[in-house]
Structure formats: C-alpha cells, structure tokens
Amino acid sequence: MNIGIFTDTYFPQVSGVATSIKTLKEALEKQGHSVYIFTTTDPHVDKDAVEPNIFRFASVPFVSFTDRRIAVRGLFHAYQVAKELDLDIVHTQTEFSMGYIGKFVAKNLKIPCLHTYHTMYEDYLHYVLNGKLLRPYHVKQMTKAFLYHMSGIVAPSERVSQTLNGYQVKAPIRIIPTGVDISRFEREVTRDIRAELGLTPEQPVLLSLSRVAYEKRIDILVDALPKLVAQTPDLMLVIVGEGPAREDLEAQVAKLNMTDHVIFTGMVDNDEVANYYHMANLFVSASDSESQGLTYIEAMAAELKIVVMTSPYAAELLTDPSIGTTFTNEDEMIHQVSNYLNHPHAFDDPAPRRKKLHAISADYFAEQMIHFYKQSQLLYDELKLDQDDLLELEDLDTKK
Known about the structure:
6-stranded parallel beta sheet, 400 residues, single chain, globular, alpha/beta, Rossmann fold
C-alpha cells in the first residue's frame, strides 16, 4: 500500500505523537508498504535537507504551544504530491492544519481517510487563556466537526474510545494501542548513564521521562521527594526532558532543599532514551492526562517497573505487580515506590511482561493498522458504489 501520513508534529520535534508516527512508519515499511510523511517545516531542519519520503509545508509556531507548528499553506501542493505518489489511503494524526490538508487530499483523490486521535484536549484547556476561553463543549464540537466523514478512527486506548463515543462520533472506531520497537529497549546498554550523571551503581534512581510540561504533574513527584529521601537517604530523581515547567520545577526543588537529590538532564536524543530506562530502578509518573502512556510501555519493554497515577489506560496496562502499579494519592505513591525499592526481586515473574510485549510490539501495531486500512478501503468502496448507483438512478429518473 501507498500510505500518506499527515501530521503537524514529526521529528526532530520530541513528543509521544512524533514517536508514535515514526514507529508506525518504520513498522509499515518493514512489512513492505510505502509510507510518506506530510508535515510542517521545522527550524531545526535545514530547508535544503534531503529527507526521503518526507514532505514539509511552510508553518509557524502554534499559539500557546510555541514548540509545535501549524502549516500556513500547501493545500494544492500536497494534493499534487499525493496524486503523483498514487496514495491508497490518507492517515491524519492531527486535528489542525495538516489534518485538514489530509482530509482535502483524500476527498479529492477519492480514497479513504483515517485518523488517530492522540490528544485528550480537555486536559489542556488551561493553556488557552487559563481555561477561560475554551470549554469541554467546544472540544466536543471541534472534534465532531473534524471527524465528520472520516472512514475510520484509531483510538490508542479505551479511554480515548469512550471519550469519542461520548462525543457521539459516528465513524467506526478501532482501539489500536501505539506499539514500540521492542528491540530498541531490549538491546545492550551503549552508555554508562549513571557514571555520566555522577551516580553510583548501587544508588536507587527514580526516572521521570516526558515533556517537562505542567500537565505531566512532575511537581507531585517533587513534593513527595522529601518523604521518600527520609526513607532512602541516597535516592535520586532523574528528570529527562525539556519543557515550559522546568524553571518552576527547579525552583520547587530548591525550596524543598532537594537540589542534591534531583538531576534535570534536559532533552535527550531519541536514540539514547533506552539507556536512561536501563539506568533507573523505577519509572515514575504522576500525569493524569495520558491517553496512551507511550513512556509506560517503553519502560516495560526495557524491563523497568513503573509506578504511575491511576487512569483507565494504566489499569489496562498494569495488570500484574511484576510490570508495575498505580496510585491515587501521595501516600500511596510513597508506599508503592518504597515497596519496589526495598524489595526489588519480590515481583520478578517474567510471564506477565512477556504476554504484554507482543501486544505492544511495533510489528503487531502495524499489523492491526493495515487490517484497519483494508477494512476501511472495503467499506469506502462499498459506499462509493452505493452512491454511484444512486446517481445513476437519479440520472435515469431525470431522463424519463
């Protein structure tokens, strides 16, 4: 198949969405399909850079998310490129600029258009005028408008599917969790991250790895740190990533006198992420805005146990303590973290993790997606035939 993926976010931008798309692209190509990325320009990519099968369209920073981009032109250019590539299907990954361009391309090429709904926007309304401009109702209306006439919708988790059903979206919805390239996280460590960070091999390390944004609630982890350090004096929290909340978090760490127990690494190259998972004793997250928790399954692939905030997605994933567990408040989090640190081999049954690995693999991710693509093509062709028959009947009736 010739597959066109339309997205506002792609590498070198760092996000779960960009990682998900790159994983899908590589897994589909591995299975013999041709994948073309239609995305925005990026200040970190030279305009003359040669990027095979990637087409970038002029863009500007998005309001309130200045590290994200919005295309400002390219509608007909995208159509011309897609026509030359003889696309079989369009798969949009954004509800904004490139998403609408993708819908335009699919409509004019008369091919199916599928969409992956990555972001739970109701969790992000505070970014726009402190939540005073947009309400959940507006998110519902915007979502229904964009998803109108879609051939199919991919929901990365049960939570997303339930939300879309609550919005009364009519298009077929399929739950397909984002996969990960298991081999990236199972292979041998290539760098001694602990030595580079000045940590000893025996020192207990908690890992937070995400965009350092307010909705990730890293502040909850920092707030709990003094109590955790009281139980484990040489404990370290390593915060990997960059984002708008970093300055406030650094101030919070200083105020709590925890500077000697926290390391901010800044942004890390995607190819080096696995080394950080292998360096840690435990992955922790207090985020309550995860629709798919890509870092959770990366940690699991790296055999790193996780302790995260309770959510429908986390409940689906963490079905055994040998994989990880959840918490609802600070006391529970402290108890769960201490339990894993003090009894590191108490939950080492490999069977539950092995069972989960196939379900989260990039290969299985691609297989499910291709199956959905083909189902959508069949349905699209049937609907098109019905419409053609209707037009033919109307034409005969007019002639009479």
